[in-house]
From TrEMBL:
It is found in: Membrane. It is a single-pass membrane protein. Residues 1-30 form the signal peptide. Keywords: Membrane, Signal, Transmembrane, Transmembrane helix. InterPro entries: Malectin-like_Carb-bd_dom. Pfam families: Malectin_like. This is Malectin-like domain-containing protein. Residues 52-130 form the Malectin-like domain. GO terms for cellular component: membrane. It comes from Linum tenue.
Length: 133
């Protein structure tokens, strides 16, 4: 016959698992920050980059706090679409600046940006896109 005795678990037993989880989170966060810094260093080597934020109000600018990339409004590169701010119910201090504005295209079959970097043809382009529902 089997014994039905239950052993009580020491109260400190979950602690190592919690510490491993915390170290994993810290390590992952530091890798993300290091990656963003490395990307920024590489972008500094690319002369003449055009860093736009779709939907940013005309003449507005800001610098991304993680990548340190300075962004400008997109109105110099497109003539269609409507700039808007997202609904105030979705805005919080945690919401990154690029996600606070948008450009929508309620009319038209073709909506394109005309980008003309100083270097011209045969160059590499970095396009970053962020979205949320």
């Amino acid at each position: 016959m089997k014994s039905n005795s239950t052993k009580s678990q020491p109260p400190w037993l979950p602690m190592p698992f919690f510490l491993v989880f915390c170290l994993h989170v810290i390590h992952t966060e530091s890798r993300v920050s290091a990656t963003a810094a490395a990307v920024r260093r590489k972008l500094d080597d690319i002369a003449g980059s055009i860093d736009i934020d779709c939907g940013l109000p005309t003449d507005a600018t800001y610098t991304d706090p993680i990548t340190e990339i300075p962004y400008i409004a997109d109105d110099a590169y497109i003539t269609t679409g409507v700039n808007s701010e997202i609904s105030s119910i979705h805005i919080s201090d945690d919401l990154p600046v690029p996600l606070r504005t948008l450009r929508s295209f309620p009319e038209g079959d073709r909506n394109c940006y005309s980008m003309r970097p100083p270097e011209g043809r045969d160059k590499i382009y970095l396009i970053r896109f962020e979205s949320f529902n």
